[in-house]
Amino acid sequence: MNGKCLLDTNIVIALFKGEPKVLKELARCKTYVPAIVIGELRYGAEKSERSDSNHTQIDALINEVIVLPITTEMGNYYGEIKNQLRSSGKRIPENDIWIAAISMENDIALFTRDKHFANINDLKTKSWDI
Length: 130
What we know:
Elements: E1 3-7, H1 9-16, H2 20-26, E2 29-34, H3 35-46, H4 51-64, E3 66-68, H5 72-88, H6 94-106, E4 110-112, E5 125-127
Parallel strand pairs: 1-2, 1-4, 2-3, 4-5
Keywords: Hydrolase, Magnesium, Metal-binding, Nuclease, Toxin, Toxin-antitoxin system
InterPro entries: PIN-like_dom_sf, PIN_dom, Type_II_TA_system_RNase, VapC_family
Family: Belongs to the PINc/VapC protein family.
């Protein structure tokens, strides 16, 4: 293992699809998932025609990774990030601000395909353009 990986929703979906590059990279690290991502996945499963199998896949993921909950300190990071984005005239989805806060509080690089995370100062990311 090379370190820690915090997964954004799009990387979890790539993992579920069995994308080889994602599987290879994640095999090298201890994997963390924000509780916010679990919520996004559950929402996607609820509206899916394959709801039961999607929920089963999410349950299996939860048993294999460390799920990071929201904490008071993350709320502090959230406020700082949201203000920094407002001051710079940048906007990103609310859930992604929380995901960034979780990454920053835990000092774990965020694995994502979303380019808008680059608008957040001091956020460590690893991006894949697959």
